[in-house]
Amino acid sequence: MTDVLARPEPAGSAFLEELRDWLTDNWDPDLTVAQWWERLGLAGWAAPTLPTESYGRGLSRADAGRVSQEIARFGALGAPAGLGMLLAAPTIATHGSREQIDAYVRDIVTGQKAWCQLFSEPGAGSDLAGLTTRAVKDGDEWVVDGQKVWTSGGQYADMGMLLARTNSEVPKHQGITYFALDMHQPGVEVRPLREMTGHAMFNEVFFTAARVADAAVIGGVNNGWAVANTTLMNERAGLGAGGGGGGGFGAMPGTVADNLARRAGDFVRAAGDSQAARRGGGRRGGQATMLINLARENGKIADPTIRQDLARLHTYGEVARYNSERQKAAREAGQDIPGMANIAKLSMSHIVRLSRDLGLRIIGPHGMLHGYDDAGRKSLDQATGKPFYAMVTGSALSAQAPPIYGGTDQVQRNIIGERVLGLPKEPSNDRVVPFSELPRNA
């Protein structure tokens, strides 16, 4: 199999030349993380997909990926990652006021604040509009009471994208408001949820008379459903497109992680210095390349069924890449491809399931072993002599989550069927009956 990552640089790369010149003039490994991210963010290179008036460059998602790769090739620390960059910044850039963009987006692109997403609730997951967390107006503030769950990175967040019910006497989609909530205040309690991987990426969050300023309402009172859909579309598009950072490997944004005062150069790997980079991890087509290399090392590359599934995995990755390019071309022409974000999310779910099954077949009985804490992982690494196996088993255990978070596969299919294909909607009166009159979770 040929190297699926070896592709010529597309035409129209003037912005990359500008970036290289800028990096030559500005990158200094002795800067603190905060100082470097401020330079990167205010120059528009941290979040290049954002509009130019919102600390971005107005580039497509595909071109933004090329920016990230160029920063990595140069040997500089990449942009701050996280849900602030992926979800909050584009949402606030779309629906926020000038003052809110300057107050919130600036701190996101410069890594000063980390964000979490306070959407799902124990009784409102797939039916997000059934949420019951309340926000009651009190002068120039709102008082928030309720509970959220499956909050990624809540333990590290400075701010939260909060959906709360502000009117129960209208249909459920019409009485929701979107807030920017300060997580560092009395009345906000974050409790990590330990997963079967051994990690605690998700949390449950409890609000007891927490407060949020009226000035932190994004997109207008009771207009939160429209704002939330912008966040969700960015989430699905981002999940479908896959990850890929710059040259960083662990610098986290925000005040909780305590990385901002550290030396930026300490978070940068030398070019080609990481096992993930050698195996193709973190780049388009990387999952297939990683497993191809692992199959070669394990002597499984000659198995025709494994070769067939490796080719299938590579094909799925290429289809996802071409869909991303189609969407890019459509947007540059002032058009759109309806449902593409939902299709990308479904594609991602399919890819992670195939990667799970294929990875476990390649490593065989070792796939039954997993370290659930640092000591366990160290013991397994010493016993097997294959530290990379932990990544395979960890990915296999976590593969059950992507088809659920960010909107379940079933929800994505409903959206495509109803909004894209025009199929009849499921019978429901929840868009005309006041939320207070609906049965619980209806």
**What is the terminal separation in angstroms?**
51 Å
The overall strand count is 8
Shape: globular
Structural class: alpha+beta
Mind telling me the C-alpha Rg?
22 Å
What is the CATH C level class of one domain, in words?
A: Mainly Alpha
Pattern of helices and strands: HHHHHEEEEEEEEHHHHHHHH
> What is the CATH architecture annotation of one domain?
Up-down Bundle
Strand order of the largest sheet: 1-4-5-8
The low-confidence runs, each spanning 5 or more residues with pLDDT under 50, are 1-11, 243-248, 270-284
Mean pLDDT: 88
Specify the number of helices: 13
Largest sheet: 4 strands, mixed
Q: How large a portion of the residues is in β-strands, by DSSP E?
A: 5-15%
CATH topology title of one domain: Butyryl-CoA Dehydrogenase, subunit A, domain 3
Helix content: 40-55%
Structural description of this entry:
- The protein is an alpha+beta fold and 442 residues long.
- Among the domains are: 15-112 and 235-241, Orthogonal Bundle (Butyryl-Coa Dehydrogenase, subunit A, domain 1), CATH 1.10.540; 274-407, Up-down Bundle (Butyryl-CoA Dehydrogenase, subunit A, domain 3), CATH 1.20.140.
- Helix content is 42%, strand content 12%.
- The chain has 13 helices and 8 strands.
- The chain has helices at 14-26, 33-42, 61-74, 83-95, 98-109, 224-241, 275-279, 286-298, 304-332, 340-363, 374-384, 389-398, 409-420, and strands at 115-118, 134-138, 141-148, 159-165, 176-182, 188-193, 202-213, 217-218.
- The strands form 2 sheets. The chain has a 4-stranded mixed beta sheet with strand order 1-4-5-8. It has a 4-stranded antiparallel beta sheet with strand order 2-3-7-6, with no helix packed on it.
- Helix 10 (340-363) crosses helix 12 (389-398).
- The chain is globular and about 65 Å long.
